[in-house]
Design a protein that fits this description.
Blueprint: E1 5-9, H1 17-28, E2 32-34, H2 47-57, H3 59-70, E3 79-83, H4 85-96, E4 102-106, E5 122-129, H5 136-149, E6 152-159, H6 175-190
Parallel strand pairs: 1-2, 1-3, 3-4, 4-5, 5-6
Length: 192
């Protein structure tokens, strides 16, 4: 297993302890992990508060912050990773980085630019089933679009789990699903 350089993006709740715990889990598996704070120190108790901050700040500004956080490390062939909103950010950056080594997504996806093209980029998505933010129709369409870009995509669905089921501080938390997702994700990283 090789050491991966992972850029791990937080969810709409901001850079909370659960994200640092996830980074520690990845470090314990032998990886180097960075957790940029693209909300500039803001954390939120509800999804609505986080979404309001995102709208106020603007998608372009948040993406710019993510790009600036990743740029100094892009030569090291990053694995982009994230939770929910952070997974959509990771997806956008990975599809725009010709040197990206992989994309690890928990709880979220994003629209895919028509021009996006990658060379067999390994992608793994872990998502609740059902998930109010990631419907079956959307995920089927997303999968086909990702395949069209050239990505090598795996989707793992977790029946009965809440949206952010890996976050122990939220009502969505599902320990069995979270442990399984982490086991599969660590295995995925070992193949890159």
């Amino acid at each position: 297993m090789g050491l991966m350089n992972i850029m791990l993006f937080h969810s709409t709740y901001g850079l909370r302890p659960a994200v640092h715990a996830a980074a520690d889990r990845l470090r314990a598996a032998g990886h180097e992990v960075r957790v940029p704070d693209i909300f500039a120190g803001h954390t939120f108790e509800t999804v609505e508060e986080g979404l309001a901050y995102q709208q106020e700040t603007g998608k372009e500004e948040l993406l710019k912050r993510a790009v600036l956080a990743a740029a100094p490390y892009s030569d090291s062939r990053l694995v982009y990773a994230g939770f929910s909103f952070g997974a959509s950010v990771a997806q956008t950056l990975a599809l725009g980085d010709a040197k990206a080594r992989g994309l690890l997504m928990f709880h979220g996806t994003s629209d895919i630019a028509e021009s996006a093209s990658v060379d067999e980029l390994p992608v793994q998505l872990h998502v609740a089933d059902p998930d109010p933010y990631e419907t079956h129709d959307w995920l089927n369409s997303w999968y086909l679009q990702m395949r069209r870009t050239g990505a090598d995509v795996e989707i793992y669905r977790y029946p009965g789990a809440g949206h952010l089921f890996t976050d122990a501080e939220l009502p969505d938390f599902d320990q069995a699903s979270a442990e399984l997702a982490w086991k599969v994700a660590i295995g995925f990283l070992a193949t890159l």
